[in-house]
Write a structure and sequence with these properties.
Shape: globular
CATH architecture of one domain: Orthogonal Bundle
CATH topology of one domain: Cytochrome-c3 Hydrogenase, chain B
Radius of gyration: 22 Å
Bound molecules: magnesium ion, nickel (II) ion
Strand order of the largest sheet: 1-16-15-2-3
Number of strands: 16
Distance between the termini: 24 Å
Largest sheet: 5 strands, mixed
Number of helices: 16
CATH class of one domain: Mainly Alpha
Helix content: 40-55%
Strand content: 15-25%
Structural class: alpha+beta
């Protein structure tokens, strides 16, 4: 059998790794593609028997990349088990932490992981097509991007304390208020952060006008549903509100959905080829109920953002992409607009008298045996669902993570890129980088998806119509 292994350089800019199979038809053209996640550590099972109050503290074991997002969702699920409304100050401080988390994660995705492709060129030397290459080529932009990420990380540290993995958001509220010095630091650093996101937005819009038209067409352009949280006036929301589904024509398909009822409208399909479950919108069935979550979805489902500068950018975004942006490549653009929204909301929260309150936590016991917490993680909607016994010991845990919800969309994106570039069973030069970039539009966290701490190798297989492997590419 003519199976061939090509080893290429070990550079990767996806958080974690996976395997991609590309299926060819009998003329050697691409039929379909699958993005497999091949490792699973059963985190949900691992939690059974532990007190639900520990969940916020062990979130770093769910994912070392997004522990903050898991901590916030865990705290919300915990509030439900206590059956309490948390103090306003606690809610607003949690929101501030989530805004810091979205900012730092989006800055990492845009400046460190993705912009080297746009700014240095898809086919530039892979050894230089990374943040170090960017520093050499455009030191001001690279430095600004690094500092913007640092800003978001510092907001999280100011609130949560310096100790790594210390659970700050807990069932009933948060452990400590924000200090005056912390507020001053954030306030002082905001103008620079606004300037950086402005710079990145003009740069990206200019690239869209001059050279990224093909990517917009090829990197995951297709209709689907979109899901995200929206506030009570239809505004952009990240930690509260209700769930909304919108289709590609802009019709609101479902609205005012509570996370408590997620099993009524979300199905979780299991495929033999992946440990990553594929959630879908239940009324539309599988796989018709494919939906996308994350920055693009949040901008699509909301009526408006609710802050001045971000709303101006949203208006321009919609002029360019239509009321509903269907190209997954525009996740990058959406991410920048969301950073702007986060900075504006952080600024508003700093001036909010509510966050000065010292009462920030409700004490309580087990008052309900079940709770679902939902929060918008940078990558998309995150659900934590717990069932406990009378003593608060976890009987069942279900996590629905963003990367799982985007699984079907990532498959479609990989298939679209493969169809464009692969012909006659040949993997052309530069293909691997493009397919990786296609996946990177979604900024997946494979660590979250598998609840695995380690890294998995990216592995691409070309599978012929008769099932034989024509070609394999590995990247460690
Ligand atoms: Mg699950
Ligand atoms: Ni993660």
């Amino acid at each position: 059998m003519a199976s061939k292994t090509v080893v290429i350089d070990p550079v990767t800019r996806i958080e974690g790794h996976a395997k991609i199979s590309i299926f060819l038809n009998d003329t050697g053209e691409v039929d379909d593609a699958r993005f497999h996640v091949v490792e699973y550590r059963g985190f949900e099972k691992f939690c059974e028997g532990r007190p639900f109050t520990e969940m916020a503290g062990i979130t770093a074991r769910i994912c070392g990349i997004c522990p903050t997002s898991h901590q916030l969702a865990a705290a919300k699920a915990g509030d439900k088990i206590l059956a309490v409304n948390i103090p306003k100050a606690a809610d607003k401080l949690r929101r501030m932490m989530n805004l810091g988390q979205i900012t730092q994660s989006h800055a990492l995705s845009f400046f460190h992981l993705s912009s080297p492709d746009f700014l240095l060129g898809w086919d530039s030397d892979p050894a230089k097509r990374n943040v170090f290459g960017l520093i050499a080529e455009n030191p001001d932009l690279a430095r600004a991007g690094i500092r913007l990420r640092q800003f978001g990380q510092t907001v999280i540290e100011i609130l949560g304390g310096q100790k790594i993995h210390a659970p700050w958001a807990v069932p009933g509220g948060v452990r400590s208020p924000i200090t005056a010095e912390g507020k001053t630091w954030i306030r002082d650093r905001l103008p620079e952060s606004f300037a950086t996101v402005d710079l990145a937005l003009s740069l990206f819009k200019n690239l869209l006008d001059t050279q990224l038209q093909d990517e917009v067409q090829i990197f995951g352009e297709f209709p689907s549903l979109f899901m995200g949280l929206v506030g009570k006036n239809g505004e952009w929301e990240h930690h509260g509100g209700h769930l909304r589904f919108t289709d590609s024509q802009g019709n609101i398909v479902a609205d005012n959905k509570s996370e408590d009822d997620y099993q009524e409208f979300l199905g979780e399909a299991v495929e033999s080829w992946s440990y990553l479950k594929s959630p879908y919108y239940k009324p539309w069935g599988y796989p018709n109920g494919i939906y996308r979550v994350g920055p693009l979805a949040r901008l699509n489902v909301c009526d408006h953002i609710g802050t001045e500068a971000a709303d101006r950018e949203l208006q321009e975004f919609r002029q360019r992409a239509g009321r509903i942006a269907t190209s997954s490549f525009l996740y990058h653009y959406a991410r920048l607009i969301e950073i702007l929204a986060c900075l504006e909301q952080i600024q508003k929260l700093l001036d909010d008298p509510d966050i000065k309150a010292s009462r920030i936590r409700v004490q309580g016991g087990v008052n309900q045996l079940e709770g679902v917490g939902v929060s918008e993680a940078p990558r998309g909607t995150l659900f934590h669902h717990y069932q406990v016994d009378e003593n608060g010991l976890l009987q069942k845990v279900n996590l629905i993570i963003a990367t799982g919800q985007n699984n079907l969309a990532m498959n479609k994106t990989v298939a679209q890129i493969a169809k464009h570039y692969i012909h006659n069973s040949e993997i052309p030069e530069g293909f691997l980088n493009r397919v990786e970039a296609g996946i990177r539009c979604f900024d997946p966290c494979l660590s979250c998806s598998t609840h695995a701490a380690g890294q998995m190798p990216l592995h691409i297989q070309l599978v012929a119509a008769d099932g034989t492997i024509v070609k394999e590419v590995y990247r460690n």
